[in-house]
Amino acid sequence: MAENESLEKGDDVTWRSHGQTVHGEVEQKITRRTETAGRTVDASSDDPQYKVKSDKTGREAVHKPGALKKDG
Question: In this predicted structure, what is the pLDDT of residue 4?
Fold first, then answer.
């Protein structure tokens, strides 16, 4: 994802997981240390992460912006 491109809740995105491309949706921008998606996320306003939900499995994951590609 480009540095100047930001993601918002509801954006459709893709990411790589276990050798496959996963399609899903941004659920939340995380800007502070928190527990979500089954793990501790060490995010900050300078280093945000995004909680995403897979369209296929419904599972949630957290990724840094560089791992996500905005669809469309």
Answer: 39
